[in-house]
Recover the amino acids of this structure.
């Protein structure tokens, strides 16, 4: 939290877009720092998150506005709400503690609820739809690419064999099944962690949303405005790092070309060579902050 506020530097009169407002914790801190007239537009795809944010932000009156929307289109949403340009954009990726704790959403391999994993309840396909219908090849690809699961092929093959007799319905059922199939184990994490991460990314289109959201955020920032992104796993952080690297270069031509033909101009100045990590006091208070990696960049004129 301290690093996000130091990066965004919220100030009186500023306009801030929180693309993942969740329970409104960061949003409230931004509004407190930008008294008395700073404003915030908070987006979330999850109505449960927005309800929590509405309660948390009610004390700020019309300085806070909440919209159910995907941050992938934050530029369109900001324009429609007469909220451009903005002085700062925050994307705090992943899921909120409220979502993770809700057994009915099926995010955890211990959840006894349906194997769902949709952050946006209006999405068509759940994790159960993917697990019970995708080909073995596609499952293997998702587990390998999004979960970096070393036993992707073995797990995918076992799932396909088992579902022919008995469909997967609940999250804990899949969690136990994957744990039983895997040969190698790391003591520090549950054996199903990578497969669950992969399914969650696939269900919610997380990487594609992030790529679109970063580009959309850059379009609505005013020169000097800041973009802060908190990632929770290496795939997300790599996507942010690559976007920042590309957007901070004046030329993105392949290295073998003798002269520049791309016409690309740097749009960002990167403020963090390496991602910032939460201070140990914050991790003590909130253990999930342990894996958070924060990158910050400033829009160039
Ligand atoms: C880690 S939480 C944010 C917590 C928030 N910063 C706070 O202080 O309470 C991430 C939130 O982003 C939402 N989310 C995930 N993907 C999204 C997307 N593509 N567009 C909008 N919201 C998204 C989730 O529903 C969740 O509520």
């Amino acid at each position: 939290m301290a690093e996000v506020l130091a990066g965004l530097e919220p100030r009186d009169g500023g306009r801030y877009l929180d693309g993942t407002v969740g329970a409104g914790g960061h949003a409230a801190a931004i509004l407190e720092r930008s008294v008395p007239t700073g404003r915030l537009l908070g987006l979330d795809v999850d109505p449960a998150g927005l309800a929590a944010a509405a309660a948390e932000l009610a004390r700020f009156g019309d300085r806070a506005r909440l919209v159910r929307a995907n941050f992938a289109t934050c530029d369109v949403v900001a324009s429609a709400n007469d909220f451009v340009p903005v002085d700062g954009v925050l994307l705090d990726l992943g899921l909120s503690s409220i979502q993770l704790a809700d057994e009915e959403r099926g995010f955890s391999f211990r959840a006894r609820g349906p194997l769902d994993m949709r952050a946006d309840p209006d999405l068509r396909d759940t994790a159960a739809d993917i697990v019970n219908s995708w080909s073995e090849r596609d499952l293997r690809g998702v587990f390998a690419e999004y979960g970096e699961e070393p036993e992707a092929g073995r797990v995918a093959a076992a799932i396909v064999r088992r579902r022919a007799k008995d469909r997967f319905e609940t999250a804990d059922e899949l969690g136990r099944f994957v744990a039983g199939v895997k040969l190698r184990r790391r003591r520090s994490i549950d054996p199903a962690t990578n497969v669950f991460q992969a399914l969650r990314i696939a269900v919610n289109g997380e990487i594609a949303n992030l790529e679109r959201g970063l580009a959309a955020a850059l379009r609505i920032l005013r020169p000097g405005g800041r973009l802060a992104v908190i990632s929770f796993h290496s795939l997300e952080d790599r996507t942010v790092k690559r976007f920042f690297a590309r957007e901070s270069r004046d030329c993105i031509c392949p290295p073998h070309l003798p002269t520049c033909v791309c016409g690309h101009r740097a749009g960002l100045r990167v403020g963090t060579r390496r991602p910032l990590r939460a201070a140990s006091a914050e991790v003590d208070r909130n253990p999930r902050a342990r894996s958070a990696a924060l990158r910050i960049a400033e829009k160039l004129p």
User: Anything to note?
Assistant: Strands lie at 15-18, 39-44, 64-68, 86-92, 221-231, 268-270, 293-299.
